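Running this now, will post back.
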Amino acid sequence: MASRNSADLGAATLGPIAACVFDAYGTVFDFSSAASACKDRLGEQTAALTTLWRDKQLQYTWLRSLQGRHADFWQITGEALDYALDTLGIADLTLRQHLMDLYFTLKPFAEVPDMLRRLRSAGVKTAILSNGSPAMLNAAVAGAGIGDLLDAVISVEEVGVFKPHPRVYQHACDRLDVGSGNIAFVSSNSWDAYAASAFGMRVIWCNRYGQRSERLPGHPDRQIASLTELPLLVCP
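Update: finished.
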């Protein structure tokens, strides 16, 4: 397993970085917070629902992309939740609606606002690049109160295909007018981190979930345990 200590992965900083581009779900926003807020109703099934909902959500993005049958992330999130509830034998329409409402404004990880302020103070552009629909992302950003700390909130809906398609990463470069080699892409999803690296971005894998290294093209430049460590790697 690769070390989770960024000091073991080379020099302290990545060099000239003009922009930090963040994945949203699992990186900036805690996707587990929706089910956790319903623990009084889900009980011992809370963790199982969180995992199955998330796994199916990602599977559906990949499968729809392969089939050429795109649907926005809000629809996919609902369909993944239906699968998870059905699998766990939970038939509660009011609970389903409550979970979807909570997903619309997921809580950010605690370190996010201060981390973004530090990047902005250092003159580094900040953006989100996410599978989320524009409405989902705008609601989450507004709920977290971080809109003024971001230069752009970019949805894959602008290109019509989900990550990890290379067009998604290229679109972030185009929107920010920054070359791939001067962007630090930050994701807690290992497959996303590796794909962005293979595309040509500098990549910091925020391995907050202790995942194993992938056997995929690309390789993250750095690995950290939380976003608190990020400014030390990218700020001049």
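Residues 6-30+107-234 form a domain with the Rossmann fold fold (CATH 3.40.50.1000). More later if anyone needs it.
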